[in-house]
Amino acid sequence: QVQLVESGGGLAQPGGSLRLSCAASGSILLISAMGWYRQAPGKQRELVALITRAGATNYADSVKGRFTISRDSPKTTVYLQMNSLKPEDTAGYYCNIGGLTRAYDPFDSWGQGTQVTVSS
Q1: What is the rounded distance in angstroms from the CA atom of residue 103 to the CA atom of residue 78?
Q2: What are the 10-residue block averages of pLDDT along the chain, 120 residues in total?
Q3: Are 34 and 96 in contact (CB under 8 A)?
Q4: Which residue pairs from 78-81 have beta carbons closer than 8 angstroms and sit at least 24 positions apart in sequence?
Q5: Cα 19 versus chain centre, distance
Q6: C-alpha 20 chain-centroid distance
């Protein structure tokens, strides 16, 4: 099994910054992709940012230039640096990591979610 633990989030003022972290643990052979999604009340969950095994990144248009996805050297922790926050960034943020376990089984795990609220 692969477990994800998220941290970060909270309350920020418009224009402020927050940093989210998501650490993966368990029987991991390799990680193929790591991403952040968000879901606001009454809305569908949407992709915010993604980083592939090769290091390629992809961002939602609404966060380009403001958010940055990165990972640590062991490539088991993914971060989301959020700058220039806007009220419309308010949502529950969820990390998602996919790959293979040491038993060569594919996994697709989700974090527990962390709330980000942007308000003055």
Answers
A1: 23
A2: 94 98 95 96 96 96 98 89 98 97 96 96
A3: yes
A4: 78/21, 78/22, 78/24, 78/34, 78/35, 78/36, 78/51, 79/19, 79/20, 79/21, 79/22, 80/8, 80/19, 80/20, 80/36, 80/48, 80/49, 81/17, 81/19
A5: 10
A6: 7
Question: Cα separations (Å) of 9 from 17, 18, 92?
Answer: 10, 6, 9
83, two tokens: 């700058």
What pLDDT shows up at residue 51?
96
Q: What is the pLDDT of residue 74?
A: 77
Q: How many residues does the chain have?
A: 120
CA separation, residue 61 to residues 11, 46, 48, 58 (Å):
23, 11, 9, 9
Other Cβ atoms less than 10 A from the Cβ of 32: the count is 14
pLDDT recorded at residue 23: 95
SS3 state at 7: strand
